[in-house]
Amino acid sequence: MVGQFIHQEYLVAGNNFNSAGSASEAVKSTLKKMGVASADIRRVAIAMYEGEINMVIHAGGGVAVVDIYYDKVNIVLSDKGGGIEDLEKAMQPGFSTAPEAVQRLGFGAGMGLPNMKKYADKFDIQSEVGVGTTVRMTIFFG
Amino acid sequence: MKTEFTLTNYLNDKSLHTVNLDPEKCKGCITCMRRCPTEAIRVRGGKASVDYDRCIGCGECVRLCPHQAKLPSHDSWDTLGDFKYKIVLPPPSLYGQFNNLDNIDVVLNGLIELGFDEVYEVGLAAEYISSVTKILLDRKEVKKPVISTACPAILELIMMKYHNLAENLLPVLAPVDVAAKMARERAIARGIPKEDIGVYFISPCPAKVFALKTGIGVNQPYVDRVLSVADAYMRLVPVMNNIKDTKPITKMCATGLRWGVSRGEANAIFHEKTIAADGVENCVKILEAVEDGSLDDIEFIELNACTAGCVGGVMNVENPFVARGRLYQLARKMSTGVNNVTDLGKSKEYFLWEESPVVKDVFKLDEDRFTAMSKLMEIESTVATLPLADCGLCGAPSCRAYAEDLVAGIIPKDTKCPRLLEEERK
User: How many angstroms separate the CA atoms of B211 and B231, rounded?
Assistant: First the structure.
């Protein structure tokens, strides 16, 4: 069983706020069936949701690949959006490049990436301007 | 396995207190199964059946059944003979049932006329709950976003599926329990023998029937019998038309009355950042969003499983939107004040949960996470073979639910998907 995992893939549509959160919802449902502790489920939920919203707002959508193991979940969020110019800045709490229209809707408060980093046990981000961004997260179940 | 008959088992048996099937009327259509918010229904052997462990009593199946085969459970009007001294608790939603009602006292006098000895308005107790809620929020004694616990179907859903959010729950008694607690005490203080007192609630929905019978948040149930709004309505209309001398009884303000509709509770606490959602599917979306941390700035969330709020309960008579319009109309004629809890001389604790409801593991596939994981993998590989049309032919609400039933052994392992069989035949 150790080493085996459940593989799930979700397409996150760009500019579709209605569907943002549906990947998180599906993953949460699986973890609840597994009996993962609710505090861990909450961390996965927040990290996934922030990632989904990021792809919707900034990247015109992307793909969420989720591998659920007995003791952890690996999440890879990749998009072919514009990429991030200054990663260091982007990781600072409160820094936001979200379009004004989106910020007015209440998203883009500059907490997306910092929150993902905060709630994930392992966090890695690779980004190239004009090519896209890939976020890799691991959350261990306590 | 036959469950041993004990009082606890009886009280906790949801089949007795939520919804029942009239097998004569059930055609085996899949309307209820498709829309049950917890996937508690299966249609096998041509009839719908409910897994009561998963039932939240929302009444959605009662509302949707095109053949009226789903019946909400409640006590019959004949139970009025069970007690010598009868206290009745009318809910705010009741007043939305009557056309041209301009005075709530006409309904309350009607209830006395029907044989009740005393009335205690649930709307009045709701105002006390609002004022306690405001104190808890002002003093930051509850975790934001605070989620209302007034709708027992939503509370049950959270206990089953949103264990994360248990700490966000508003730990106050339901208005009906406060009404029952206070009315009973008052009667005892007046010297009426305890054993003679019967407290009757007139319920708009099966969720409240279940909650009161099992006693959620309370040490033991305060309400003795739970009648339906529809039964009360049928008896009230004739007597209300003949009331000559309307005695002043009502103490409730417009604030309490508006608890009968969605937003009534949220508006009554006078905090700025509040949300009110109604309709069980909409409530689910809000609960998912709270879990995802996207509503962290909200102070208070009111959720009603029924569309439009309690006026949408399936044991009412009138269309929810018509009833809502009437409540608004009535509220305009009433005092805009609010009955404040500080006038009662009772401690805040009096209104708080006497015991916290406990979370239920109904969706966990196995106690052991290894086993749950291997079941999940089996489910995933089964799902991969299915058409994902969610057609319901197999009697499960979705292909995934069918795979789960197969792996759980609820249906025989050699069962085949009827849709795939059909295609093979072609």
Answer: 19
| pLDDT tens readout for residues A59-92 | 899 999 999 999 999 999 999 999 999 889 888 8
pLDDT of residue B1: 39
Q: Which fold has domain A6-140?
A: Heat Shock Protein 90 (3.30.565)
Mean pLDDT of chain B: 94
Among chain B residues, the shortest Cα distance to A46 is held by: B292
Residues with pLDDT less than 70, chain A: 1-2, 98, 101-110
Q: What is the ipTM of this complex?
A: 0.87
| R_g of chain B computed on alpha carbons | 23
Residue of B nearest to A39 (CA): B164
CA distance B85 to B244: 24
Q: How far is A66 from chain B (nearest CA, A)?
A: 14
**B363 and chain A: CB distance < 8 Å anywhere?**
yes
**Residue A109 class from Cβ within 10 Å (0-12 exposed, 13-18 middle, 19+ buried)?**
middle
Q: Do B365 and A46 touch (CB under 8 A)?
A: no
B400 in contact with chain A, both atoms CB, cutoff 8 A? no
> Which tens digit of pLDDT belongs to each residue from B77-123?
999 999 999 999 999 999 999 999 999 999 999 999 999 999 999 99
For residue A35, list chain B residues with Cβ-Cβ distance below 8 A: 361, 364-367, 369, 372
* Chain A nearest-CA residue for B359: A38
User: What are the tens digits of pLDDT across the range B29-56?
Assistant: 999 999 999 999 999 999 999 999 999 9
Count of alpha carbons within 13 Å of B197, Cβ hemisphere only? 22
Query: What pTM was computed for the model?
Result: 0.93
| Pairing, β A72-79 against β A6-13 | unpaired
* B361 in A contact zone (CB under 8 Å): yes
Domain boundaries defined on chain A: 6-140
Q: B11 pLDDT exceeds 70?
A: no
Smallest Cα–Cα separation from B119: which of B94, B137, B152, B102? B94
Show the domains of chain B with their CATH numbers.
1-73 (3.30.70.20), 77-351 (no CATH), 366-426 (1.10.15)
> Per-residue pLDDT for B2 more than 50?
no
Find which of A5, A19, A27, A34 to mutate to test the B interface (most B CBs within 10 Å of its CB).
A34
Q: Do A46 and B163 touch (CB under 8 A)?
A: no
Mean predicted confidence (pLDDT) in B59-77: 95
* SS3 state at B301: strand
Q: Residue B292: which of A24, A32, A33 has the nearest Cβ? A: A24
Residues from chain B that touch A115, judged by Cβ atoms under 8 A, are 293
Contacts of B380 in chain A (CB under 8 A): 6
* CB contact at 8 A, B182 and B69: no
